Amino acid sequence: MSKNDRIKTSSGFYVSQEAPIHSDNPVPTPSAPAPDILRCAYMELVVADLQRSRAFYVDVLGLTVTAEDEEAIYLRSIEEFIHHNLVLRKGPVAAVAAFSYRVRSPEELDKAVAFYEELGCDVRRNPDGFVQGIGDSVRVVDPLGFPYEFFYDVEHVERLAWRYDLYTPGALVRLDHFNQVTPDVPRAVKHYQDLGFRVTEDIQDDAGTVYAAWMRRKPTVHDTAATGGDGPRMHHVAFSTHEKHNILAICDKLGALRMSDHIERGPGRHGVSNAFYLYITDPDGHRVEIYTQDYYTGDPDNPVITWDVHDNQRRDWWGNPVVPSWYTDASLVLDLDGNPQPVVARTDDSEMAVTIGADGFSYTREGDEDGSYRGEAAKGFKLGNQL
Ligand SMILES: [Fe+2]
User: Fold this and answer.
1) 130 lies in the same domain as 187
2) Are 279 and 179 in contact (CB under 8 A)?
3) Model pTM score
4) Which residues have CB less than 5 Å away from ligand 1 (the ion)?
5) Ligand 1 center to residue 353 CA distance, Å?
6) N or C: which end of the chain has fewer CB within 10 A?
7) C-alpha 238 – ligand 1 centre gap (Å)
8) Cα separations (Å) of 193 from 7, 34, 135, 356?
9) What average pLDDT does the segment 263-286 reach?
């Protein structure tokens, strides 16, 4: 779909009714129906030092410990009623062992097995679950190289939402989404659409290169996103707070603890998703986003938003530049035997390369060349002119 087939909104981005993304190298669509996914449910992270990670996720971020032993810690957000949203497992290589989704019923696991076996993937089912608290589960290495898990059976725990005595100023209330780095975004989008995901937003250029796409099952902007880059790697896992001030409280706490070097990017307001955000890195370099206040997307005709890659407000609505590490750094992902998946280089244009002007900061949008800041007749990126 060309840009002319989309409607430009008064906010400066484009809307259409179908994701205007086409893959020239698609993963085949299985004849077996996809499992009915409810939502992203938890991530299993391998960490080098369990107690160091516990200090970060429990003492600093305030996640609730559901269970722990010598090998793993099971953590949940304050509104969660399933056993956990995050598993920290001690291991030799800091990486992601599973992106785990909850499905609608136990029968959906049979569908998951058939769906991925038809694609020739490594598929393993464990009636007792792969981790504590979770029952019958299916784990696969998906066609894009990511370790995906599906489960329905799970131990219920107390939803602590009413326990205001337990809240901290920066309380994390829900798991919101995953973000995956993958070389070929259209291929990823097509495959995840086959798995039942719907695109809510994307970033493209005039030539049709797709730099990123956001996809949802639950009625928010996303359960996962595909970010163009060398992959498969994990870009971040995101937890929600109730309000913006909770995110500012996390920044204040990190400052007070002299941990400001864990703040990578933000706080800020996203263009994509309209959410307020902060990116931090854990002791192993795994990136965590704190996120709040995106919008409802559950109608079947929810408009798909397309951002121009050269719109400097797409990733930060206030126009603050994205730090290079945010584009380049990501976590390895593991196969089902615990070995790191090989990383394949992106061959399409990189978002970082096409959006940084000659001075390192400029707007690169066509027609913005004469933009000025405080009267300076230079390319108009505000930080570039502060030097
Ligand atoms: Fe995110």
Assistant:
1) no
2) no
3) 0.94
4) 179, 238, 289
5) 21
6) C
7) 6
8) 23, 10, 27, 31
9) 98
